[in-house]
Amino acid sequence: MPRRGIPKQSADELVRQLLELLPDESVLFGEEDQHPYECDGLSAYRQMPRVTVLPENVEQVQAVMRLCHRMQVPVVARGAGTGLSGGALPNPDGVLLSLAKLHNILDIDPIGRIARVQPGVRNLAISEAAVPFGLYYAPDPSSQIACTIGGNVAENSGGVHCLKYGLTVHNILKIKLVTPEGELLCVGSEALDSAGFDLAALMTGSEGMLGVFVEASVRLLPRPECVRLLLAAFDDVEKAGAAVGDIIAAGIIPGGLEMMDRMSINAAEDFVHAGYPRDAAAILLCELDGMRQEVDEQAEQAADILHRAGATEVRITRDEAERTLLWKGRKSAFPAVGRLAPDYYCMDGTIPRRHLPKVLRRIGELSKEFGLPVANVFHAGDGNLHPLILYDANISDELARAETFGGKILELCVEVGGSITGEHGVGMEKIDQMCVQFESAELSQFHAIKHAFDPDALLNPGKAVPTLHRCAEFGAMHVHAGQLPFPELERF
Amino acid sequence: MPRRGIPKQSADELVRQLLELLPDESVLFGEEDQHPYECDGLSAYRQMPRVTVLPENVEQVQAVMRLCHRMQVPVVARGAGTGLSGGALPNPDGVLLSLAKLHNILDIDPIGRIARVQPGVRNLAISEAAVPFGLYYAPDPSSQIACTIGGNVAENSGGVHCLKYGLTVHNILKIKLVTPEGELLCVGSEALDSAGFDLAALMTGSEGMLGVFVEASVRLLPRPECVRLLLAAFDDVEKAGAAVGDIIAAGIIPGGLEMMDRMSINAAEDFVHAGYPRDAAAILLCELDGMRQEVDEQAEQAADILHRAGATEVRITRDEAERTLLWKGRKSAFPAVGRLAPDYYCMDGTIPRRHLPKVLRRIGELSKEFGLPVANVFHAGDGNLHPLILYDANISDELARAETFGGKILELCVEVGGSITGEHGVGMEKIDQMCVQFESAELSQFHAIKHAFDPDALLNPGKAVPTLHRCAEFGAMHVHAGQLPFPELERF
């Protein structure tokens, strides 16, 4: 990559020292070069880093960390930048550390069912490399074609199949990481158990606050012999919510179990023509995987349960084309709903699934109280809600009403024992809501953990864990034409 | 419980203050009263605590912790005392805090598939309470009839079925704990995901070093419709080891996959007459569970694989009586082997399963080199080894040879990427071997974590994580007539 006319002698001391550690093309400090790194998937937050580095090996990562530690410069690690909570937003005074060049699959062990990979390996690439062994890597965030395993570990990514196969934390065995001091740590074990505190689990979901991941050993699973998708239509949202519990209570563990309400169904139909029943109040998409006989048997059982739960129609897909089309509607639901109103306010919380009917009913009541429509499209089996509140910021007080409404939904999640986060991490986006979720005792403990790994607070400062000082109120995410009217990045 | 003649006025200040916080019968300070608490399942380590308390509710636990914090008195938490690594060994200057009176199942949620229980609830009692819902709690340490969930969480307990269903850490959702300062913390979430650092996973396996657990929400699973056990005989240990990998590589995930070598087989046969083939060099016990059709299909497939791997005989159980008898031999293998020699030296380590044949061969070679017989009986699917080195401490240098031999086996586990721990925790027993497993960078990080939760080092001091100072050499466990010739508890 050319330096684009910025002479070395004009760079500051940090850049000069980085250029001594790394090849020239691995140190970016001009505005144009760094443009691709100024935001992640939450594109409304933008911040140019002081300098961007792309080390080519672990030793270079260590050298960068040692330098930054010596100079007390903040470091933000970055995978593919597909995160949705602003976790990889650069720090204006710091180094943006891209792991993109550490992109090798180091080893696949079919007997241990383990892949050992560098952090910049794409999620889907692991499964592709495991095809010859009949194996795959289960967690499948919707960005899996682009997102990298380093980012997945940092955010504890989920996906449609985490109901059955768990989150990233359940599929990670061992992690190598570089500390803020530049030391290499190896936590967890490829063997079943690991001695000492479970630092591999602690690392997973730590959002770049505790170390820079440079290698991960992940668990692989046998590919299922057979996959079928069921679509069930309901004339009532609560009935659909209750049916989710019925399926689980019957001992079935679907690969995925998704729900869409009427507004989402019709928005998706208008957008991609998936063949959904437009007159349904809600649909469930229930995917079953396993051995053929088992799947066929469970599909019949699930269809029975859905009928008994009041489904007006149940379809079982018989081929891949049918299955792909039904998923297409679900996967395009967000942009489809986005066409219905000038603005929408996207909430993301998780509740224990037994409370689905109650919470859905309450959201419906709140929708009437606040006079704002809501579209529900979400991972029902996981209790991971994504209510989309539609509003128009140009109409006086609608934004304020949407905000209060969204706040009520989050409070409801916490009230029933749920979580203010779904699968996107906290990052910048939800840092205020951490104050709703946790008491000061838990927050203080988070800070103690942070201090135990990063006493100088150099790693991804200002993300994921709010200061107690900040916890006076909570904010939430408002979307207007893809832009978020958020305050500037606050350093703390 | 009567006070047995020790007047309150003779008790020290700590005891007097505890008696103000708790009912009289919940504070034990006489030698006779405290006798049951002086050791856990590793009975060769014995130590009388200064005082034993049995609080009846969370508030009393908090009050005890606040008092101990104020007086800077060490606290050792204890469940049922069935642990095998001395993790619950009392501290002579401290309080032994039994959670036995917190033994209520608080809630079972069949839709969320979650049981919320107090720490003193027995492992098996959870599954028993879940029977009406067709559910059970999967981790099944062999002590499951007696051991409690608090201890299971502290030790990250395993069991025969952790190959398929994971360790305790994979089955715990939320933990309430009391800090050394007496504060109540709630970590994890009954919802799928939890915001902030994954402190619930960090707590699991922390061996009483980070907090006192007062409540756990555990995941329940649907009971399998059908269970079958296969027995496969081999004329060669390495072939049996390779067959383990073949089964896994074929995409089968057995509920359990156990291995016994000739010496174990014959010792078990002499002891309980399980019907094992006495002339086999090794047997595998492979349990399959799931839906009936699936299990039948997989049993046939596994039998084929075992035959192709060189099995001289494969049996598939058809009823519970047959299955129970075959398991009885496995479960009595340790005491059975114990009858073959005056002393045995029990190792417990885990290796990646692909290295099973190599490690088994190397153990056989070492057995010849050292002139000491070894019996192997272990969780083969998990790569969790339990070599039992037979020796006679009355014969000059046999103890020293057994010790060196055992050390070689542990080094071998670490060398192939395994772990010095299996499923029993580190406790007192393996604290020296932690120095083999970890570099000082990792050990320092463990200390930083400990400091983040327990800066005064009051919780279970001297267990699980060695000081760097201690890491000059490692020891191991020698059994002579059930007694361990270990040095006195070292405070550090």
UniProtKB/TrEMBL annotation, chains A, B:
Cofactors: FAD
Keyword field: FAD, Flavoprotein, Oxidoreductase
SUPFAM superfamilies assigned to the protein according to its UniProt record, in alphabetical order: FAD-binding/transporter-associated domain-like, FAD-linked oxidases, C-terminal domain
Domain FAD-binding PCMH-type per the UniProt entry, residue ranges: 45-223
InterPro entries: FAD-bd_oxidored_4_C, FAD-bd_PCMH, FAD-bd_PCMH-like_sf, FAD-bd_PCMH_sub2, FAD-linked_Oxase-like_C, FAD-linked_OxidoTrans_Type4, Oxid_FAD_bind_N, Vanillyl_alc_oxidase_C-sub2
Family matches, as Pfam families: FAD-oxidase_C (PF02913), FAD_binding_4 (PF01565)
Keyword Flavoprotein carried by entry: yes
GO molecular function, a single term: FAD binding
Designated name of the protein: Glycolate oxidase subunit GlcD
Source organism (scientific name): Mariprofundus ferrooxydans PV-1
